[in-house]
């Protein structure tokens, strides 16, 4: 049976007819209702051979259960993080990468949780219990940052959010105690820093870390390399630097997706969606993301479900 799916080419994704994926024994077949795009996916097309199926973050309905009996039954609404193939009408996903969407949670709010939501949740864990702690989040208006601000605030942290001026987002409404556009405007030391800008921002952020604090490296959105050495940590030799990549973190995807979905259902997390559009307009959305015109996440609707 054929379906429509975005297929990767060196020039970018093209919407074409493709075979409906065959399930492995531990995979459920999901009819995709909506998917989200991550900035990290924008640069993959020039690096991969033509014919691959892009897409990681998605939400939809199980139409065929896993043959091994694991996972949700047919007809269940789910969110998932796949390795690939999510920008399609149907995709097969291992059941341990799926979570059931609670009643009252919209499909468009479940779709963008995979890469960005899990990155924020897991990166914050590197700092231990956050109640009463001071947390700095750079790149706070982006997909990961907008999740991290809310999650840290929900745990009782005092959040300082660093954001540039190109994207307008009310970070105070998300829970940030302090909103700054330069680290020169920050005050005091931080127990945990989530750093995604790189370059001089990383160098400066490290100087703001408390003697036993944790700094988690999430990316280098500036494209600049930071000049760091062992002397960068003197005299605070008890500081910890965590290079972080969500796919290698070792935590259970389905369980963590369920945590995020539960927080949405309880009104403690509200995914920031900078643009919702039909999936046929994916190329325009990718341009908006590449040029940093969107705050938070972009969600594309495959079947019109919101």
Automatic annotation (TrEMBL):
Enoyl reductase (ER) domain sequence ranges: 8-300
CDD domains registered for this protein in UniProt: MDR4
Keywords (A to Z) from UniProt: NADP, Oxidoreductase
Gene3D superfamilies hit by this protein: Medium-chain alcohol dehydrogenases, catalytic domain, NAD(P)-binding Rossmann-like Domain
Enzyme class at the top of the EC tree: oxidoreductase
Statement: the UniProt record of this protein carries the keyword Oxidoreductase: yes
Gene Ontology MF term list: alcohol dehydrogenase (NAD+) activity; NADPH binding; oxidoreductase activity, acting on NAD(P)H
PANTHER family on file: ENOYL REDUCTASE (ER) DOMAIN-CONTAINING PROTEIN, QUINONE OXIDOREDUCTASE PIG3-RELATED
The protein, known as: Alcohol dehydrogenase
């Amino acid at each position: 049976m054929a379906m429509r799916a975005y297929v990767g080419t060196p020039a970018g994704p093209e919407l074409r007819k493709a075979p409906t994926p065959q399930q492995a024994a531990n995979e459920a077949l999901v009819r995709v209702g909506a998917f989200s795009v991550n900035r990290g996916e924008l640069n993959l097309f020039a690096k991969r051979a033509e014919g691959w199926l892009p897409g990681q973050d998605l939400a939809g309905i199980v139409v065929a259960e896993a043959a091994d009996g694991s996972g949700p039954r047919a007809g269940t609404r789910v969110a998932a993080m796949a390795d690939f193939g999510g920008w399609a009408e149907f995709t097969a996903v291992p059941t341990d990468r799926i979570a059931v969407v609670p009643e009252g949670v919209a499909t468009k709010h479940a779709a963008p949780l995979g890469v960005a939501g899990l990155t924020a949740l897991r990166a914050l864990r590197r700092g231990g219990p956050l109640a009463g702690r001071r947390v700095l989040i750079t790149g706070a208006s982006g997909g990961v940052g907008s999740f991290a601000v809310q999650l840290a605030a929900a745990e009782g942290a005092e959040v300082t959010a660093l954001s540039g001026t190109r994207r307008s987002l009310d970070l105070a409404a998300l829970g940030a105690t302090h909103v700054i556009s330069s680290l020169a405007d920050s005050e005091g030391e931080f127990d945990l820093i989530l750093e995604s800008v790189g370059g001089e921002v990383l160098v400066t952020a490290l100087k703001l870390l408390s003697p036993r604090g944790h700094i988690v490296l999430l990316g280098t959105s500036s494209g600049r390399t930071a000049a760091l050495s062992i002397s960068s940590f003197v005299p605070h030799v008890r500081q910890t630097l965590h290079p972080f990549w969500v796919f290698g973190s070792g935590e259970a995807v389905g369980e963590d997706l369920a945590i995020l979905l539960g927080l949405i259902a309880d009104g403690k997390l509200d995914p920031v969606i900078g643009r919702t559009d039909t999936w046929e307009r994916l190329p325009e959305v990718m341009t908006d993301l590449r040029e940093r015109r969107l705050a938070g996440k972009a969600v594309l609707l495959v079947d019109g479900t919101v």
